[in-house]
Amino acid sequence: MVSPVWRRVAAAATAAATLLSSTASAQTWSACNPTVSTSCPADTALGMTIDVEFTQGAVNSFVASGAPTYGPDGATFTVAGPGNAPQLTSVFYIMFGRVEITMKCAPGAGIVSTLVLQSDDLDEIDMEWLGADDTEVQTNYFGKGQTTTYNRGQFNPAPNNQAEFITYTIDWTADRIIWYVGGTAVRTLLFADAAGQYPQTPMQVKFGAWSGGDSGNAPGTIQWARGPTDYSKGPFSMSVKSVLVSDYSTGKAYTYGDTSGTWQSIKSDGGAINGNKGQAGSVTVTASASAATQLSPSIPPGGIAPGMSTQTKSSGATPTSETTIPDGWTMTPSGKIVPAGSSSTNPPAPSSSSSSWPLSWPSAPEGLTTVTTYDGRGFPTTLTMATQEATTSYDSQGFVVSATRTASSSAAGASTTTDSNKAAPPVNNGAATGAAAVPRLAMTALIVGVCFLLL
After folding, report:
1. Which of 100, 124, 136, 322 is catalytic?
2. Most CB within 10 Å of its CB: which of 101, 143, 254, 348?
3. Which portions of the chain have biased composition (kind: Polar residues) (predicted)?
């Protein structure tokens, strides 16, 4: 069976235009809303558990917008001025599941650090940390993008969240959602208590930082974010060490069976909804927190940022473009997308709609052969080597483990540029030396030949 095309990553959701209306729709956006269209593409399923260590750099299972950077603290999302809203968005969806994020929140009045689970029909589960107060987290949910009276948000305790790395968890099943702070359950929402607005459709995972207190935002958003933001006191940074994502369903893709938006209407290609249900509830709980300190009537939906028009997007990682993973590639437990088999030396030809893989591979000079290997982050890298020496083998994750090289190594495709501040690790010792040696040897041979003729 042909594997499904990895679908378009939805653009970051926008903040509410006003927070004073008693009945409104969330100011979020979906590339194709399955509750109003029956022709939406399938959602690529995670169907497993991945544990991503961002201290090791970027992974290609999350698409970047803005300019997140990578270092000892993991992925860092910095807001330094108007329009800055760096974020990562998963190229996969989960159908019920658990998301654990270990992070340090950004400080600053008006600055918002956010974890959002959001579906194509605008179901949503949020955790948001306001830089003006490092003692709490705001938990929230929306069903089908409906905000009604903005009465679903709560303030929950999360002390010292700007100075310490803390693990936050959203555990989501068909029956309930539990929000955790450092192993402490701070809020539980039952399906029966959601008044018909329970999130229950396949979700992407998004996280990042933005300025809710920017002067360009609606007054209600600025007030909610406890702004305005004073950029002269910045920059303001959120850091994420790791993210664990567990899909409680199995399969390759999720589709909507009708326009109802109910979880019973969701179909799995090659798996089962709740096929991994046995993993539910495996979060280690150390305590249960007291009730929320107060309800928040003014938490906007969409939680990441108010629109993308002024943001700078990372090269090769545009959230509004389709991300296509070639047939025969797979996800590793560390969140890297790599060839499924060890015999693969070149990715198959990409689909015509793909913008993430090169449309053609460079040809090698006569006597040399071009092969493709994969660096430590799962990104393809082309190698040009002597034909007779072009022997390469790969480990179980598709990474090169041995090869005799005599020529150049160069990045293959824009996906290697997702981390502009950190060079990709070398594929093997000696590649750079070989790259320089071939042109030098050729030039030496030419000079010797010319001298011989002159003599």
Report:
1. 124
2. 254
3. 308-324
